[in-house]
Amino acid sequence: MKNHSLVPVPILFWIIAGLALVWNAIGVMAFVGHISMTAETLATLPELDQQLINATPQWVNIAFGAAVIFGLLGCLALLFRKKLAINLLLISMLAVLVQMTHMFFISGVFQLKGWSMAGMPVAVILIAIFLWRYAIRAKLRHWLN
Fold it and tell me: DSSP character for 74?
């Protein structure tokens, strides 16, 4: 019979989980700011940004919200050393991929604004994938229960 008790985790685990929590908390704040933007605030943005925001389908906003909310919950689960983090971070990653599929392949934002702004969306995708895989590794190392 295998012993599946929790083992001590390295300090790097706490650093990664803590930074990831902050990252996703910032994402939640950005999402709340996005969905609560008033018409007056929208009017202060450049015309192209206004058009892009107005043309964004609701399903993309739902994916954005799911990505950051499930990401935040997944990072909390990591900090509490719960294996639920794996599923929460998987949902977050899938929602990121849905959101970014729109950004990269449907919206035309990079054709309109230039590919130089693709760095942050690529980073978001890579971080989401990393966090999901990190949670899996943490479970395999018996850091999560």
Answer: H
